[in-house]
């Protein structure tokens, strides 16, 4: 059986969220006991909590909401590339030595160890020119282990807009610590949330046979 890698963050109280965004909370509404036959819980969270897919409506006024996006980019062959050496911004020169001639989905590892216990503002971002390069090679999706393609304090969202121009999909907040660079099958479908600007995902990588 092919090995599966779970590359999703654990959703839990106290997990890091974007500064000022909604904290995650999970609390019981019904409790299984002598008076009640089931457990039922309430969740409070941001659409961008943990490992998530951005919808175009996240940053574009006329962008599509998450329930209407094409699901095909979130399922299929992908390549994981090690960009831990890239520094603050992944530039095309960092990608060229390891990027296959043709790709469909590209996941970039930038953290030495994913920061599970606290927010880090010094995450690696992606140059717009790198998005262009990925699109030229056929990429339909880019995924990163950082919380955003763009810097925390830069409201221009240049990488996001370049993704939008190329019609690509975005995954953010992946956990790639245990995943060797190479080729996999990606499974990371967003929830069907009406009007939402993003969706948490349960992201998996499956080793390819052979």
From TrEMBL:
The keyword ATP-binding does not apply. This is Kynurenine formamidase. It catalyses: N-formyl-L-kynurenine + H2O = L-kynurenine + formate + H(+). Its cofactor is Zn(2+). It comes from the Bacteria. Substrate binds at residue 18. Its EC number is 3.5.1.9. GO terms for biological process: L-tryptophan catabolic process to kynurenine. Pfam families: Cyclase. Binds 2 zinc ions per subunit. The keyword Hydrolase applies. Zn(2+) 1 binds at residues 48, 52, 54, 172. Homodimer. Pathway: Amino-acid degradation; L-tryptophan degradation via kynurenine pathway; L-kynurenine from L-tryptophan: step 2/2. GO terms for molecular function: arylformamidase activity; formamidase activity; zinc ion binding. It comes from Billgrantia kenyensis. Keywords: Hydrolase, Metal-binding, Tryptophan catabolism, Zinc. The active site is at residue 58. Belongs to the Cyclase 1 superfamily. KynB family. Zn(2+) 2 binds at residues 54, 160, 172. PANTHER family: CYCLASE-LIKE PROTEIN 2, KYNURENINE FORMAMIDASE. Catalyzes the hydrolysis of N-formyl-L-kynurenine to L-kynurenine, the second step in the kynurenine pathway of tryptophan degradation.
């Amino acid at each position: 059986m092919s090995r599966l890698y779970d590359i999703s963050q654990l959703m839990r109280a106290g997990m890091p969220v974007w500064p000022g965004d909604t904290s995650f909370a999970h609390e019981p509404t019904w409790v299984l006991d002598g008076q009640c036959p089931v457990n039922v819980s309430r969740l409070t969270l941001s659409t961008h909590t943990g490992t998530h897919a951005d919808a175009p409506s996240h940053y574009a006024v006329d962008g599509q909401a998450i329930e209407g996006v094409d699901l095909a980019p979130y399922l299929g062959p992908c390549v994981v590339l090690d960009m831990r050496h890239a520094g603050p911004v992944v530039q095309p020169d960092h990608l060229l030595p390891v990027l296959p001639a043709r790709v469909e989905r590209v996941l970039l590892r930038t953290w030495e160890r994913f920061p599970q216990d606290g927010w880090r503002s010094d995450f690696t971002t992606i140059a717009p020119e790198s998005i262009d390069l990925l699109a030229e090679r056929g990429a339909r999706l880019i995924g990163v282990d950082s919380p955003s393609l763009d810097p925390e304090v830069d409201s221009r969202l240049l990488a996001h807009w370049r993704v939008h121009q190329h019609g690509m999909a975005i995954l953010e907040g992946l956990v790639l610590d245990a995943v060797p660079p190479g080729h996999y099958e990606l499974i990371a479908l967003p929830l069907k949330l009406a009007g939402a600007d993003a969706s948490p995902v349960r992201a998996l990588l499956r080793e390819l046979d052979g």
